[in-house]
Amino acid sequence: MKRALSQDDLKRMVGYQAVDDYVKSGTVIGLGTGSTAAHAVDRVGEKLKSGELKDIIAIPTSVRTKEQAEKLGILVTVRVIYYYVVVSCCCFVKFIFILRPKCI
What we know:
- It catalyses: aldehydo-D-ribose 5-phosphate = D-ribulose 5-phosphate.
- The chain crosses the membrane at residues 81-99.
- InterPro entries: NagB/RpiA_transferase-like, Ribose-5P_isomerase.
- The chain is an alpha/beta fold.
- The protein has a single domain (7-99), classed as 3-Layer(aba) Sandwich (Rossmann fold).
- It contains 4 helices and 5 strands, in the order H-E-H-E-H-E-E-H-E.
- Helix 1 (7-22) crosses helix 2 (35-50).
- The chain starts with 6 loop residues before the first helix and ends in a 5-residue tail after the last strand.
């Protein structure tokens, strides 16, 4: 018999799915704070390491998230001005949002 998924399992699934669905190479992403965000950051790091993602810049919302992203090799900045935000699913706005400059 299968065991029920834990709350952390569900958060990992949501964080990974948000990255898989919305983060594309060459984008600037906002990284939020919290346990679900931590899973999303892990997924971005995995995809960068594997080469599936390239040229990602991240804007973290906390020192903790910044440190996690840096450890995973994610380029982090805190001073960026971009033109508009692409957000289509309110359930992930809390921990990850995508910014795409018009020049890309």
